User: Fold these one by one.
Assistant:
Number 1:
Amino acid sequence: MGIRLVFVFKVCPCILEIVGTHNE
């Protein structure tokens, strides 16, 4: 469960960055 949380926290910023770049 802890590893999964770390994975989400590491992946979320990447997705947000990609989405933000696509929006701009």
Number 2:
Amino acid sequence: MDIAAVVSKAKVMERVGRSRNNLLGVYHQRSEEWKQRQTLCPGSPGSLKKKLFSTAEAQTRQRKDALQQALQEVQEAKEVQLDSKAWLLVELDTTWWKLRATFDKYLTEAKKYATVYSDAVRLLQSYMSCSLQFLDVHEGYAQFQAADTQHQEALLEAWSTMVPLAGLLVSKILDSDAMIKLSNEDARAAFRSKFSTLCDKFVCCLVDLTHKHNKLVRHCMQNFASTWARQ
């Protein structure tokens, strides 16, 4: 083989190599473009996986938000219930302590009047036993009259103040269903305190019933077996 033929074959092989390299490059570029299209395509596995993951994540987030909202609503309901109870107690206590303060003020004046009245009776008894002069009795009677007038004024003031307060207290109790609400709250508190005891008793009763049921079933099966054997 001469040199010209070798050079010619070498050039042919070089062209074939370049053509193959060019073909491989075009294939590689097309493959990358196809992968990108497949990733961006709505129906591609990668896109579908992303969609499924995104949908699952969104559903999880929605469930979490719904749970948090439900818990928040329950907490708000409890706070409203506690606030309602606290408001009711504050309203009743406010009126009650105004009523109690007026009553205590009258009791103080009534005790003073009772003391002066007792002193006047003792003065009168001493005068009747001739151990006091009329002048002492007269001074004691003047003190008794002053105490009686003061007691009448205190009684009138207490009555005029306590009657509207008593009516207001009764109105608050009736309008707010205070007795029912407070009774329900007491019942809930008592139930919470006795809940564990009730649960223990319920479990004991359930276990006892289970044992009795199993015993009855075994007895029935034994009777059935003996009856079947006799036949």
